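Cross-check.
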Amino acid sequence: MRETLNQNLIWRHYQSDGAEIFDDAVPRLRYLSRLARKALPSGTPNVLNIGIGNGWLERQCAGFGWNVFTLDPDSVAARTVSTAGIHATVGTIEQLPFGNECFDAVFCSEVIEHLTDGQSDQAMREIARVLKAGGLLIGTVPYREDLRENQVICPHCGELFHRWGHQQTFDRAAIRRILETGGLTVGRLFVCAFRDYAQASTANLVKFLIRWPLARAGSTLVYANIVFTARKPIARLSPSG
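Predicted model, tokenized:
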């Protein structure tokens, strides 16, 4: 599949007219925010979320009393979330517009699959740069997605593209390699299925109870995510000669 000509158009659609798609992300983002809350030190940590979506994660983290920053290539999404008191910046993950070692944690959930292989390697180096020593990266990617299943073709120009702009598919080994590209130390790395928040019903609860063990077992019969955490190593002083 060729690289999408303008990924920003896809992002803008789903973060404005198609924003309801992010309702289904709430269980995933709530889980990640709880992981971060357990791992981060007390006080007021600086945290960055890459990819605004509908701003749910930013508002959740602000509710914890954290100093929250967010980054997105779409200026409209950035303006929208900034009205909630979030520090919103327009930019890309490959060139983070932040200084060195300024964040205690970075969230990167359902973002890396939108990048090419070269872009994802650069993104990890940038995340490692802006994390403080010992800082935490936490996020998800789809697990072993068959990109062909969501290919569509533009009836106007004939461009073949993934409906959500995904360009890579991952198993555990692939995401581990990308994390380690930035010199990060991988922590947790597991497959998980999250409940569909927008369709809460007894039937969907039963479906989730079936999907969850299949996902944990690594089955590709259900949609699942790889959950990952990684830390920036703390530099050790070498013994003096």
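Helices lie at 7-14, 26-39, 56-63, 75-82, 117-130, 172-181, 202-216. The CA atoms of residues 68 and 93 lie 17 Å apart. Passed to J.P. for a second look.
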